[in-house]
Amino acid sequence: MTAGDVTNLWLAEALFRLGGVKFGNFTLGRSTVDSPIYVDPKVLLREPRILARVAQLIKTETELGLAMREPRFQAFDLVAGVPYGGLHLATAYSLASDVPMIYGIPPRADGSAAKIEGRFKPGENVLVIDDLMTTGGSLVETLEILKGAGLVVHDAIVLVDRGQGGGERLKHHGLHLVPLLNLNQMLNHYFSQGLISEADFRKSQEYVRTHQHESGL
C-alpha cells in the first residue's frame, strides 16, 4: 500500500473491517440515544500497522492544510491527545511527525487540580487530536486545560465527527475543527461498496439528519 492509497475513505473502510462500525440500537451516554450506528475508533489499537497509516494520514492532512494559500491550520509546536480516545492517535502522530506530544489531565474528585503531562512552554501553539466527536465536550475540556496553562490552541483534528452539533460548540469556544470523516461520508461509502444493507443505510441517514446541532453551547 502506497501513501496515495491511505485516504479518508480508506480509513472509513479500515474502521469497518476491524469491527469499529456496528449497526443496531445503541445508547452511549446522554447525547447518543437510540442510535442505529456505533463507531469505535479504538479498534485501531488492534492493528499497529493500520494505526501507523492513520498517523500518516493525519500528517498528510496537516501538512497539506498548512501549505494551502489560505491554510486550514495554524502552525503548531505541540500536539495534544484528548484522553482517552485521542491519546494513541496523538502518540502515533508524534512518532510519525517528530512533533512533541502533551496531554491534559482533568481535575479529580479529590480536589486535585488539572495538569498537563509533557514538556511545554507558555505561548506555544498546540494542535489537539481526538478519535470521535459527538458533542465536543471532551475537546472543550482539553482546550480549557491547555489554555489555562498559557498554551495557544487554534485547531483540532478528529477522525470521525458524528455531526451532532460538536463543530458549532467548538466554534463558539474559538476552536476550529477539521474532521477526517463524518457519518454521512462513511454511510455513503459503505452502501456504495455493498458493505451494509439499504435498511441500515436509510435508518442511519435519518438518524444523522434528525440529530444534527444537538449539543448545547
Provide a descriptive summary of the structure in words.
The chain is of the alpha/beta class and 217 residues long. It has a single domain, classed as 3-Layer(aba) Sandwich (Rossmann fold), CATH 3.40.50.2020. The chain has helices at residues 8-17, 48-67, 87-97, 137-148, 166-172, 183-192, 198-210, and strands at residues 21-28, 32-39, 78-81, 101-105, 115-117, 125-133, 152-161, 176-182. A 6-stranded mixed sheet has the order 5-4-3-6-7-8, sandwiched between helices. Strand 1 (21-28) and strand 2 (32-39) form a beta hairpin. The longest helix has 20 residues, at 48-67. The chain is globular, with a radius of gyration of 17 Å. The mean pLDDT is 91.
* Proportion of strand residues: 15-25%
Strand elements, count: 8
**Alpha plus pi helix count:** 7
Helix-strand pattern: HEEHEHEEEHEHEHH
Number of domains: 1
Mean pLDDT: 91
CATH architecture name: 3-Layer(aba) Sandwich
Distance between the termini: 42 Å
Label the overall shape: globular
Share of residues in helices: 25-40%
**Uncertain ranges:** none
In spatial order, strands of the major sheet run 5-4-3-6-7-8
Alpha-beta classification = alpha/beta
**Computed Rg:** 17 Å
State the CATH class. Answer: Alpha Beta
Briefly note the CATH topology name.
Rossmann fold
Largest sheet: 6 strands, mixed
Could you give a short description of this structure?
It contains seven helices and eight strands.
Main attributes of the structure:
single chain, 217 residues, alpha/beta, Rossmann fold, two-stranded antiparallel ribbon, 7 helices, 38% helix, 25% strand, globular
